[in-house]
């Protein structure tokens, strides 16, 4: 005689079935071709690479597409082919990938020696500054995969604008004690960038306290200086950047002092030597 199952066994089986069904349903939802659930965009790069099945089958590719989805490049309408090349109008993978789309292909726009020119098709003024830098010379002289490009500091796809919390680590990728390649650069860059970013505090003060027409006229004269300073940053000449930043801050401080005097606000007294450097906040 066969052993009869205990009363609890059918209950356990019943509890497992809904869970298994739920897992199977989730797997089908994840692995289903994108075209079954989403309308085609007309861009085969997007239509293929947005497939959520890549989360399982090719996580790296899935992450690339998700980065592009949330990037300033997507917001500005920059699509895959504008950097990678390829054929976004092609119906099949082989044709779409023709023409060198990978970073290892020397004909690709994202090959390390080509990245600078690829980025420069939109960021022309920044490219002009970068071409005068030692970083650019380093790329030009190297025959192997070395040399700092735009991607080295800013990343790719969903790019990062460096700030005082990230610039030191970015510089230290190359400039460190182990490489003995100007290890003082990271801390110096952080300090110079901190002063450069203080410009925005003065912008805010002048925008609030000046009459609208006066503020517009002032910024119309000052903005070209700020744009030029942004280009200078990409020469990586820290002494020049520091000097031009100090000159720009002098102009802003003079305008702030004018507005304070006009409004009857007393000037901030100079701090004593013991109290450290002047606090720039308005």
Structural summary, described in words:
The protein has 282 residues and is mostly helical. Among the domains are: 38-131, no CATH class; 198-268, no CATH class. Helix content is 59%, strand content 0%. It has 17 helices and no strands. It has helices at residues 8-31, 34-37, 44-49, 54-57, 59-69, 72-75, 80-84, 93-96, 115-120, 124-130, 134-141, 150-154, 167-172, 185-197, 199-209, 212-233, 238-262. α14 packs parallel to α17 (238-262), α15 runs parallel beside α17 (238-262) and α16 runs antiparallel to α17 (238-262). The protein is globular. The chain starts with 7 loop residues before the first helix and ends in a 20-residue tail after the last helix.
Proportion of residues in β-strands: under 5%
Mean pLDDT: 81
Number of helices: 17
* Low-confidence segments: 1-37, 270-282
Q: Specify Rg, calculated over alpha carbons.
A: 28 Å
Q: Which class best fits the helix and strand makeup?
A: mainly alpha
Shape: globular
Distance between the termini: 91 Å
Series of secondary-structure elements, N-terminal to C-terminal: HHHHHHHHHHHHHHHHH
Task: Report on the biggest sheet.
Answer: none
Helix content: 55-70%
Q: Total number of β-strand segments?
A: 0
């Amino acid at each position: 005689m066969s052993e009869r199952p205990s009363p609890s066994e059918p209950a356990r089986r019943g509890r497992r079935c809904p869970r298994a069904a739920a897992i199977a349903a989730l797997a089908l939802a994840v692995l289903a071709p994108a075209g079954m659930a989403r309308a085609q965009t007309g861009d085969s790069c997007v239509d293929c690479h947005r497939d959520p099945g890549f989360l399982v089958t090719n996580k790296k590719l899935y992450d690339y597409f998700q980065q592009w989805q949330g990037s300033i490049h997507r917001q500005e309408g920059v699509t895959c082919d504008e950097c990678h090349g390829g054929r976004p109008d092609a119906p099949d993978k082989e044709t779409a990938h023709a023409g060198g789309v990978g970073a290892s292909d020397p004909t690709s726009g994202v090959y390390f020696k080509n990245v600078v020119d690829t980025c420069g098709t939109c960021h022309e003024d920044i490219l002009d500054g970068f071409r005068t830098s030692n970083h650019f010379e380093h790329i030009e002289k190297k025959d192997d995969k070395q040399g700092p490009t735009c991607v080295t500091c800013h990343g790719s796809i969903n790019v990062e604008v460096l700030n005082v919390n990230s610039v030191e680590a970015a510089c230290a990728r190359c400039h460190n004690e182990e490489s003995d390649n100007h290890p003082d650069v990271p801390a110096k860059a952080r300090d110079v960038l901190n002063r450069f970013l203080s410009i925005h505090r003065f912008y805010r003060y002048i925008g609030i306290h000046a009459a609208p027409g006066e503020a517009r006229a002032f910024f119309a004269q000052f903005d070209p200086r700020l744009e030029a300073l942004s280009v200078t940053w990409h020469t990586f000449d820290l002494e020049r950047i520091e000097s031009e930043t100090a000159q720009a801050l002098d102009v802003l401080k003079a305008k702030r002092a004018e507005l304070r005097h006009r409004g009857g606000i007393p000037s901030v007294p100079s701090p004593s030597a013991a109290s450290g450097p002047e606090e720039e906040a308005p």
